[in-house]
């Protein structure tokens, strides 16, 4: 497809427009079907597992992030620990 639209670029001015129209005609149904299938999949997923579990996952992620920030905030010694190994 890229070769075809690239070949149309030989036509000054109009080739770019014609190539865009061809690509749009080909991609529009493909992207529409992907979007429709993704929407149906997510709708079924939310109906089966419920939105409650998704909210709980978000809250657990936020709690983990906050606890990590609190542990960094309570840290007193910020010096790097370098261990030199004798060979």
Tell me what you see in this structure.
The chain is mostly helical and 87 residues long. It has one domain (2-70). It has 2 helices and no strands. It has helices at residues 2-8, 14-73.
SSE inventory with pairings:
Layout: H1 2-8, H2 14-73
Helix pairs in contact: 1-2
What structural keywords apply?
single chain; 87 residues; mainly alpha
| Total count of strands | 0
- CA radius of gyration: 27 Å
Question: For this entry, what is the oligomeric state of its chains?
Answer: single chain
Q: What value does the average pLDDT take?
A: 81
Largest sheet: none
Distance between the termini: 60 Å
Helix fraction, binned, reads: over 70%
Note the run of SSEs as H and E.
HH
Low-confidence stretches: none
Give the overall form.
flat
Number of domains: 1
Total of helices? 2
Would you tell me the structural class of the helices and strands? Answer: mainly alpha
- What is the beta-strand fraction? under 5%
Question: TL;DR?
Answer:
This protein has 87 residues and is mainly α. The protein has helices at 2-8, 14-73.
